[in-house]
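Subject: Interface between my chains keeps coming out wrong

I've been trying for a while to get a sensible model of this assembly. When I model each chain on its own everything looks fine, but I need the whole thing in one frame so I can look at the contacts. Pasting all components below, labels as-is. Any help appreciated, I'm running out of ideas.
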Amino acid sequence: GDSVTQMEGPVTLSEEAFLTINCTYTATGYPSLFWYVQYPGEGLQLLLKATKADDKGSNKGFEATYRKETTSFHLEKGSVQVSDSAVYFCALRVNTGFQKLVFGTGTRLLVSP
Amino acid sequence: DTAVSQTPKYLVTQMGNDKSIKCEQNLGHDTMYWYKQDSKKFLKIMFSYNNKELIINETVPNRFSPKSPDKAHLNLHINSLELGDSAVYFCASSQAGSSYNEQFFGPGTRLTVL
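Reply #2:
Try treating it as a single job with all components included. I did that and got this:
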């Protein structure tokens, strides 16, 4: 079945450090890929998305590139801030039938000043 | 101006009770969802309705019964609550057929069963 695998957290970084959160997927067909972010005590917000191979999604300094050859969608940011501390979820949506999202287990990011 | 709202935000109850969680969206979407997030933050879809019709029903106990009185509302009723039902429940909505079918999430309802 369709699935998403994320690196285990927590990821602990100092402010201005470089961030990578790995995400790989297994899917039938050609999925769309998403990163969602959940700040403490809040619901999920869409961070960025990509719908086809080699697409790059970007938002708020975060980037992820849809790599079909490695079935990956790693999240990166060049310089993290304390306000980026949150849980990040990688997700896929198979674009056939009724389009449900399949989430990874989430990766907690902790950024210290 | 809240896009997807849920009530209540917190719900503490005893085992065996019946409770409901309400969800409303003012985005004009035609598809709504319920997700369960467990204590390890794992997020899994439970149900989805499109135009008030059930379209996704994952492996969820019969004690859980969603109801969609109209496209803007999707409520979740839970009978005979169990300890394992303790979780955060998120409602979401989207517009089927849109280019990204982006799902917008509510703030969540934290259910604690004692």
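Reply #3:
Confirming on my end. The interface with chain B takes residues 32, 36, 38, 42-46, 49, 51, 87, 89, 93, 98-103, 105-106, 108 of chain A (CB under 8 Å).
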